[in-house]
Amino acid sequence: MRDSKKPDLFDIESQFTEDERQVRDAVARFVDDRILPIIGECFENESFPMDLVPEMAELGLFGPTLTDYGCAGLNNVCYGLIMQELERGDSGVRSFASVQSGLCMYPIHAYGTDEQKQRWLPDMAKGKKIGCFGLTEPDGGSDPGTMKTIAKKDGGDWIINGAKMWITNGSISDVAIVWAETDEGVRGFLVEKGMTGYSTRDIPHKFSLRASITSELFFDNVRLPDANRLPGAKGLGGPLGCLTQARYGIAWGAIGAAMACYQEALEFCHERVLFGEPLVNKQHIQIRLADMLRRITTGQLLALQLGRLKDAGTMHHSQVSLAKWNNVRVGMDIAREARDILGAGGISIECSPIRHMLNLESVITYEGTETIHQLIVGRELTGVAAF
Ligand code: TGC
Ligand code: FAD
Q1: What is the distance in A from the centroid of ligand 2 to the CA of 326?
Q2: Is residue 106 part of a domain?
Q3: What is the atom index within ligand 2 of the atom nearest the CA of 141?
Q4: Which of 192, 215, 252, 274 is 20 to 30 Å from 8 by CA-CA measure?
Q5: Which residue from 149, 124, 127 is spatially nearest to 137, judged by alpha carbons?
Q6: Whose CA is nearest to atom 45 of ligand 2?
Q7: What is the pLDDT of residues 147-164, one digit of tens each?
Q8: What is the distance in A from the centroid of ligand 1 to the CA of 364?
Q9: 3-state secondary structure of 336
Q10: Residues near 10 by Cβ (< 8 Å), separated by ≥ 6?
């Protein structure tokens, strides 16, 4: 018999392979046992649960689709299910894993030298080294082509000056993938913790993604050897190629947040008795729950088809934009709806929808705002860039 509490009216379960289900269920257990009991407190205290990083590494959550260097070489649907389950826990936890995997390990794997790969990837897969991705600058993140951070050639070295803002994991990172303008166009550099002239400062007082560290990065004449440049990344396509990986994961992750909110609202409606009967008996409540499930189901199917296209090697980045736009919007709307259904209790950190709702305010902004993704799809349809 179908479990009515599981948001799977279309038997999407049957579309996953046994391996995909096993990966998802292992991460689900980790989230239920280790994340959910502590995440409200982390959110309240503005702290990321660093002590769980070794367990995340043990589960293979860092760089899971990469091959060699201690990575599992899983398919992209497995990766999506990992992101879905992590974000069912909290967007901050998913952020940690997606920055480490899609924005740091991926560019080293795709654009780096053998030495760079050997030096960083095995330790990053084990969670012993943490990475961050510095693209956004204080003067505007949507248009990275106008970045002001500059790298100048000085003999065999590079000198970097500038600043990056809103950088996930910035201050706790051993290595920052930093994108800078050079005389030859945009290039990527590995800036290491402790390098002279490199400093970070955390951004406090966030009302969103509180269980995640967000920092500014400063570069004051940071001198790097050419060995710290990613040779395979040339032009803006370098960082944008990384964003495709992380945006793909977010398309799945936001559905995880939506599922958590839907499930909490459904349980509440079974238990809450008003006007002499449980809330589930009310037509208006059923319509709201049905509408949540409609949106979750379409988001799941979109993410799954995107994953199958990515695994087939035919996915286009405009498809990722459509899925990120749709699924984060679905997550936000459902979180808000669930928060309202929970009544006054729904404003408490004891309930997850308000935490997801606040987190998704970051998720809809980072990795390309909703408007940017709408315009990417618009460009694909019309051939006209209207940014
Ligand atoms: P445009 O002319 O479109 O592209 C320049 C070159 O890049 C190629 N390209 C892509 N390649 C791979 N994947 C993509 N998604 C790509 N999009 C474009 C393109 O083919 C071109 O290549 P080439 O060889 O012809 O030079 O560039 P544009 O300057 O017109 O910009 C277009 C626009 C607005 C879409 C782009 O700038 C953009 O996506 N802006 C949004 C920036 C953004 O998303 N920033 C995110 C920062 S990282 C972050 O938020 C991490 S959050 C982490 C967490 O905690 O989870
Ligand atoms: P802006 O680019 O200034 O945009 C402001 C508004 O203008 C938005 O509503 C936008 O949609 C709108 N807009 C933009 N262009 C147009 C247009 N052409 N037409 C109409 N409207 C438009 N960045 C990183 O590099 N690395 C990270 O690890 C990282 N982590 C982050 C973590 C958090 C918690 C947050 C909140 C952000 C993070 N970011 C990171 C930054 C994020 O990518 C940027 O915030 C995002 O790209 C938007 O840039 P912005 O905030 O400067 O807004």
Answers
A1: 17
A2: yes
A3: 49
A4: 274
A5: 149
A6: 366
A7: 999 999 999 999 999 999
A8: 16
A9: helix
A10: 297, 301
pLDDT digits (tens, 9 = 90+) for 110-136: 999 999 999 999 999 999 999 999 999
- Domain span including residue 310: 237-382
387 domain-assigned? no
Cβ neighbourhood burial of 203 (10 Å; 0-12, 13-18, 19+): middle
Q: pTM, whole model, 2 decimals?
A: 0.97
Tell me if 313 is assigned to some domain.
yes
Q: How far is the CA of 225 from the centre of ligand 2 (A)?
A: 31
In a domain, residue 5? The reply is no
Q: How far is CA 312 from CA 63, 76, 315, in A?
A: 19, 10, 8
Count the domains in the chain.
3
Residue 169 belongs to domain with CATH number: 2.40.110.10
> Are 250 and 350 in the same domain?
yes
Last residue within a domain, chosen from 110, 125, 140 = 125
Residues constituting the chain? 387
If asked whether residues 248 and 344 sit together in one domain, one would say yes
CATH of the domain at 338: 1.20.140.10
- Which residue among 146, 216, 243, 310 is best mutated to probe the pocket of ligand 1, counting the most ligand atoms within 8 A of its Cβ? 243
pLDDT of the residue at 4: 54
Where is the domain boundary, 73, 91, 125?
125
Q: Is 374 in the pocket of ligand 2 (CB under 6 A)?
A: no
pLDDT in tens, 348-385: 999 999 999 999 999 999 999 999 999 999 999 999 99
Whose structure tokens read 């990344």? Answer: 233
For ligand 2, whether the C-beta of 331 sits within 6 Å is: no
